[in-house]
From TrEMBL:
It comes from Agromyces mariniharenae. The lineage of its organism: Bacteria, Bacillati, Actinomycetota, Actinomycetes, Micrococcales. Gene3D superfamilies: 2,3-Dihydroxybiphenyl 1,2-Dioxygenase, domain 1. This is Glyoxalase. It comes from the Bacteria. SUPFAM superfamilies: Glyoxalase/Bleomycin resistance protein/Dihydroxybiphenyl dioxygenase.
Length: 204
């Protein structure tokens, strides 16, 4: 079964971006790698990263740490029908959703999180679902314009969402062009998906 080892994000200043992820989220290069941007990109890049935590206090702690490290607030932390969450944009341009399905705290606040999830905004969810299914990714959940893949052995989860809907839930305009400025590093090999998202070797 396909496992995602890490994500490589392109940034104008890779060293500063790596420091941001360490300071804000405690993420090292084993999960989030950075490299110098080699392609132009404007507006929404078509994806979001999520840190899924066990309680609201952790969401707020991660959110505040990200803002203190230089992130821009796209959506403040707030309660909803599904839990508690907030959205920030890192200095390198990547959008991060910090969320929990829990409504109440169960312990002291910390930066601990349970899952990292990459959500790709795609034009044709059905076609992309089939594309990834052909590459060894089994579907765990699928409803409407959302697909969650089963990645039990992977430190980073993967989902699909309609691009327009993903931009709306992130609090950012849908318009964007050029490079996604992201590479997914996995054991599935090197390829480019129907929406232009690049995949590379986990050892890259």
């Amino acid at each position: 079964m396909t496992a995602i080892d890490s994500i490589t994000l392109e940034a104008a200043d890779p060293e500063a971006a790596q420091r941001f992820y360490a300071d804000a989220f405690g993420l090292g290069a084993d999960r989030i790698r950075t490299r110098r941007a080699d392609a132009a990109s404007t507006g929404f890049r078509g994806y979001t990263m999520s840190l899924v935590t066990s309680q609201p206090a952790n969401v707020r702690t991660l959110f505040d740490a990200a803002v203190a490290a230089g992130a821009t607030v796209l959506k403040p932390v707030e309660k909803s029908l599904w839990g508690v969450g907030g959205v920030v944009q890192a200095p390198d341009g990547a959008i991060w959703n910090l969320a929990t399905s829990a409504k109440k705290d169960s312990g002291p606040a910390s930066k601990d999180f349970e899952h990292i999830v990459l959500l790709l905004g795609v034009e044709d969810v059905g076609a992309s679902k089939r594309f990834y299914g052909d590459r060894g990714l089994a579907t765990a959940k699928s409803f409407g314009s959302y697909v969650d893949f089963a990645t039990p052995e992977s430190p980073i989860g993967l989902g699909l969402y309609k691009r327009r809907a993903l931009a709306k839930t992130s609090g950012i305009a849908e318009a964007g062009s050029g490079s996604h400025r992201i590479t997914v590093n996995s054991d599935a090999g090197s390829f480019t998906d129907p929406d232009g998202f690049e995949w590379g070797s986990a050892s890259a």
